[in-house]
Amino acid sequence: MRKPNKRRRSKHILLLSLSIMLIVFGLWFGSTNAYTFLKGYLLFKTGQVDAQDYEIKSDLKAATIEEEQIEEQEQVPLYSERPEQGENIGELIIPKLEAKLPIYHGTDEDELEKGVGHFAGSVLPGEEDNSVLSGHRDTIFRELGEVGKGDLLIVQTSAGEFTYKVKKVRIVEANDRTVIVPKPRATLTVSTCYPFDFIGAAPERYILVAELISSK
After folding, report:
1. Strand 116-118 to strand 130-135: parallel, antiparallel, or no bridges (unpaired)?
2. What domains appear along the chain, each with residue ranges and CATH number?
């Protein structure tokens, strides 16, 4: 009679130990970057698109080569209202990565946890001047290093679809404010921490500077 009691006691201790381990793991997972990492990874994976749907048409290629021939459009406001902090303002499509990512107005942690953040001090996508977007390198922008000069960045908002072409790739110090300076024409600046495999607070930023080549 004693042996069955010992077996039950051992089984009970084992189950209790496993339960405690699962609880501890859950608390750790929810309070560390692991949760943010997985959330961003799932966001990146669920936002997949087909790159062929966003290929540059032959006439658009000619326009990008001779950009000085693009006619100036009448200065009509693209947006009737400015977005509120935390509001979803559209989506960023990166054909090279076959990714489609939500954009939120603001660059606080609340916005960056949900997707790409739009720097509130910059113009909105499609407008003249410099529109600045940021994202975490270890979540939604984990593969941004594969995007470079000549690649497309497409932003879809309530005002339309805006296609930008990357003209320059920069690596700057984390406190470099030239990233957000005004531009003479419609520009999209996309920023993330760098190096991509750096552990801890990265000292630099990986910057894509793209100019508007098409809007509809």
Report:
1. antiparallel
2. 32-215 (2.40.260.10)
Residue whose pair of structure tokens reads 């032959």 in the numeric block: 58
The tens digit of pLDDT for each residue in 128-154 reads 999 999 999 988 999 999 999 999 999
* CA pseudo-torsion sign 120, 121, 127, 129: negative
Rounded distance, CA 91 to CA 30, Å? 27
Its pTM stands at 0.70
pLDDT digits (tens, 9 = 90+) for 62-118: 444 345 444 444 567 889 899 999 999 999 999 999 999 999 999 999 999 999 999
Pseudo-torsion of CA 58, 52, 168, 189, nearest 10°? Answer: 120
Q: Which two tokens stand for residue 36?
A: 């943010």
Gyration radius (Cα) of the chain, Å: 23
Place of tokens 């930008």: 164
Catalytic residue list: 136, 193
